[in-house]
TrEMBL record:
<protein>
    <submittedName>
        <fullName>HID1 domain containing</fullName>
    </submittedName>
</protein>
<dbReference type="Pfam" id="PF12722">
    <property type="entry name" value="Hid1"/>
</dbReference>
<feature type="region of interest" description="Disordered">
    <location>
        <begin position="582"/>
        <end position="614"/>
    </location>
</feature>
<dbReference type="GO" id="GO:0005797">
    <property type="term" value="C:Golgi medial cisterna"/>
</dbReference>
<dbReference type="GO" id="GO:0000138">
    <property type="term" value="C:Golgi trans cisterna"/>
</dbReference>
<feature type="region of interest" description="Disordered">
    <location>
        <begin position="634"/>
        <end position="680"/>
    </location>
</feature>
<dbReference type="GO" id="GO:0016020">
    <property type="term" value="C:membrane"/>
</dbReference>
<dbReference type="InterPro" id="IPR026705">
    <property type="entry name" value="Hid-1/Ecm30"/>
</dbReference>
<feature type="compositionally biased region" description="Basic and acidic residues">
    <location>
        <begin position="662"/>
        <end position="671"/>
    </location>
</feature>
């Protein structure tokens, strides 16, 4: 009964606020206190403060909305100063936090209101105290007061952290003199002590982080822009030196995420018996962390970050002089992590969480499965991008395979689901980044013995085989929106190919099947860029033949079996009539590569399309492969030398690829499935011509393969006739002991396409990250039904 009375009082206060025609004075504490003294849940706040009423107050009584925001922030500032000594004050903090979380999105969606929190409020000083006689220039914007109060409250003894005080100490004095580095939430980077778990502290931290995330979400209400100078003012201030808690906050968020163990002692079904307050905190901490690590490629901060990477760890003198590198201290601290035990803790934490959904048990659904794998992949990406020491640490041992297997699992699982196109993209981008390093290719030779439930052919082989088999699945049975990723997928295979010591027969056949499909005349001639896919695959075969011939008899045998594919490519007719005939031969309705092999698969259900009614966020277009990679040639001593871009290069892809952005924003475009790379072809109607075909056909790198066929085919045919062989194992044995030393053309230099940070992918990541955060925060639905402009939310 008491609870319903509380809700009634709160609802009455909301109605009074929306119906009052005259502004309510800021000094009328009796009126304003109704909003934060009641004990109501976050769900009640969202239900009792409807969107329509917030918008009505915003339009009809703007001064009342402004005063409500000011008073709520004022109460948070007062609580941060006093140290929340009483239960009543703690309840006020939680209620003000929930109310601001509810209201802020409606402030952001209106361009006229967006600057409100950055306007100065009389009486709010830079020093944090409230003083009516303060000079206007000394006043602090409301946003800054709010962010600093939240930061203080995240290290408030007995509210969000365990108190270390001796009895009799004044809470206000304690919070003013607190060294928050002694109150880091979890052991890990820079902190050895693990504080006892406290359910209530975790809930309070979660509420404050939710408000922080809502503050940062102003970015969702601005249209996409590739301008790297546009920074999020909320993130910029919160992660600046103005916030005295940046270092302990960064380490607290990072350690809480990387130190989380969802399985615990492994008691079956424990997640159904007990609620886990830590999981909610981990999700919120992870989302705040990935948003706060905001850093644009090409900015002055980027140059500083690269300089920081190139230098050794900072000396004591350098640290005294102040932080070099980016102004965003979260990015700065992340880029400086260098101790082996810290890097190991981070990598172990991320791999353990990413592998969690792959855990198999005899009892169905007996183990908790986390749902925040997309945010973890974004965090891993940011670590690799901002801290080269971390990237080299990952590639230094076979631990990188602990990252690879879950990424391949997610690619395979999400390939047919258009609501998870973004997940496939980020997985591919991470693998592209890793594939630019020699160590990644070398590590892939480790045998794959794990049995993860995936609908892929059963094979005995290495992690490289697993990668090729899953890439083949994504290409042949993925959603059509993944077509723009074909270049990326094949670039990864090209990058690792010089280091692959022994491909299995299954993987070799998959590569040949892709060449067969991509070199079909109707496919080659139906779009301006399709021939690049053939160039990539020929480069893969050439790399393996020239550098890893000895262990790859399976691939050599597959090439010999499919030799007609190479002969057809070499003899592709270039006259106009043949081009027209080839295009007419295309089967109606065939819009993607189809795999014809029916194989035994691992015990798993096949990838399924999105459920009808599922929500998805639109994505920006990703730049073409030539825009996101730079070529590097591997010299004899193993070092890489950057190769200048050549316009006539056979495997350079021009133009941006169409992921899903424009077709999603334009309803007309959404009705007709668009072909791959349509952003290029739609500008002017393109058709294949003899000159165009000749321009690339003469550059097909077929010499090495043709020489191999010229030497080996007669030998294989002779041995089959002489010995009457019908069993392929005997032929493979012959090929294993064969050699082509001195018979092949001079080996070409190894060419690696390394990922290059650029404004296009930075914009894609920002859109993807906020889309994930929007869709994951449904209880309460913080941004639901507000005027988001960074992306569109669509129902499938």
């Amino acid at each position: 009964m008491g609870n319903s009375d509380t809700k009634l009082h709160f609802r009455k206060a909301v109605i009074q606020l929306t119906t009052k025609t005259q502004p309510v004075e800021a000094t009328d504490d009796a009126f304003w206190d109704q909003f934060w003294t009641s004990a109501i849940s976050v769900q009640d706040v969202f239900a009792l403060v409807p969107a329509a009423e917030i918008r009505a107050v915003r339009e009809e009584s703007p001064s009342n909305l402004a005063t409500l925001c000011f008073k709520a922030v004022e109460r948070l500032v007062q609580a941060a100063d006093s140290g929340c000594p009483s239960e009543k004050e703690r309840r006020i903090v939680v209620n003000c936090t929930r109310l601001l979380t509810r209201i802020l999105p409606y402030i952001f969606e209106d361009a006229d209101w967006r600057g409100f929190f950055w306007s100065t409020i009389p009486g709010a000083s830079r020093g944090g105290c409230l003083d009516e006689d303060l000079d206007e220039n000394e006043a602090r914007p409301l946003a800054e007061s709010l962010l600093l109060a939240v930061a203080d409250l995240l290290f408030c003894p007995d509210f969000t952290v365990q108190s270390h005080k001796k009895s009799g100490t004044d809470p206000a004095e304690e919070i003013r003199s607190i060294d928050s580095c002694e109150y880091i939430w979890e052991a890990g980077v820079g902190f050895a002590h693990s504080p006892p778990l406290n359910y209530v502290h975790d809930l309070h931290r979660t509420e404050l982080l939710k408000l922080l995330l809502t503050c940062f979400s102003e970015a969702m209400y601005l249209p996409p822009s590739s301008d790297s100078k546009v920074i999020n003012p909320w993130v910029a201030f919160f992660c600046s030196a103005e916030n005295r808690h940046t270092l302990p906050l960064f380490t607290s968020l990072l350690n809480v995420v990387c130190g989380y163990d969802p399985v615990g002692y492994g008691v079956p079904y424990n997640h159904l018996l007990f609620s886990d307050s830590r999981e909610q905190l981990v999700e919120q901490a992870l989302q705040v962390l990935v948003v706060a690590l905001e850093h644009e490629a090409g900015s002055p901060a980027s140059a500083a970050l690269q300089a920081l990477d190139a230098s050794a760890s900072p000396t004591a003198d350098e640290e005294e002089r102040g932080p070099a590198g980016p102004d965003n201290l979260f990015v700065n601290y992340l880029s400086r992590i260098h101790r082996e035990e810290d890097l190991s803790f981070i990598l172990r934490g991320l791999t353990q969480l990413l592998n969690n959904p792959l855990i198999q048990t005899y009892l169905p659904r007996s183990t908790k499965k986390i749902q925040f794998h997309q945010e973890l992949l974004i965090l891993f990406w940011k670590f690799c991008d901002f801290n080269k020491k971390f990237l080299f640490f990952v590639l230094k041992s076979s631990d990188v395979l602990e990252m690879l297997v879950p990424i391949l699992f997610y690619l395979n699982d999400a390939r047919a689901d258009q609501s998870r196109v973004g997940l496939v993209h980020i997985g591919v981008f991470i693998l592209l980044l890793l594939s630019g390093e020699r160590n990644f290719g070398v590590r892939l030779n480790k045998p794959y013995t794990l049995r993860v439930p995936m609908d892929i052919p059963v094979f005995t082989g290495t992690h490289a085989d697993l990668l090729i088999v899953i890439f083949h699945k994504v290409i042949t049975s993925g959603h059509q929106r993944l077509h723009p990723l074909f270049d990326c997928l094949l670039t990864i295979i090209v990058n690792i190919s010089p280091y692959l010591k022994s491909l299995s027969m299954v993987a070799a056949n998959k590569l040949l099947h892709l060449l067969e499909a991509f070199s079909a005349p109707w496919f080659l001639l139906s779009a301006q860029q399709h021939h690049h896919l053939v160039f990539f695959l020929l480069e893969v075969f050439n790399n393996i033949i020239q550098y890893q011939f000895d262990g790859n008899s399976n691939l050599v045998y597959a090439i010999i079996r499919k030799r007609n594919v190479f002969h057809q490519l070499a003899n592709l007719p270039t006259d106009k009539e043949s081009i027209q005939n080839a295009l007419q031969r295309k089967k109606p309705g065939v819009s993607r590569v189809n795999s014809a092999d029916g194989e035994a698969t691992e015990d798993s259900k096949p990838a399924e399309p999105a459920e009808p009614g599922a929500l998805k966020a639109s994505l920006e277009a990703t730049p073409g492969i030539d825009k996101i990679t730079e070529k590097a040639q591997v010299s004899k001593d193993g070092t890489m030398v950057t190769v200048p871009h050549s316009p006539c290069d056979g495997s350079a892809i021009d133009g941006a690829s169409d992921t899903e952005s424009n077709s999603e924003r334009d309803p007309e475009a959404r009705r007709t499935p668009r072909s791959r790379m349509s952003s290029v072809s739609s500008v002017s109607v393109w058709s294949a011509s003899p000159d165009w075909l000749l321009s690339w056909k003469t550059r097909l790198p077929l010499q090495t393969i043709m020489r191999l066929l010229q030497v080996l085919v007669p030998q294989v045919e002779k041995i089959c006739i002489d010995k009457g062989l019908t069993d392929e194992s005997e032929i493979l044995k012959f090929l294993q002991h064969g050699t082509l030393v001195g018979l092949l053309p001079v080996p070409h230099p190894i060419l690696i396409r390394k990922y290059q940070a650029n404004a296009g992918t930075a914009m894609w990541f920002r859109t993807y990250m906020w889309g994930v955060i929007y869709l994951r925060n449904v209880d309460p639905p913080i941004w639901y039904d507000t005027d988001i402009r960074l992306f569109e939310i669509q129902r499938i």
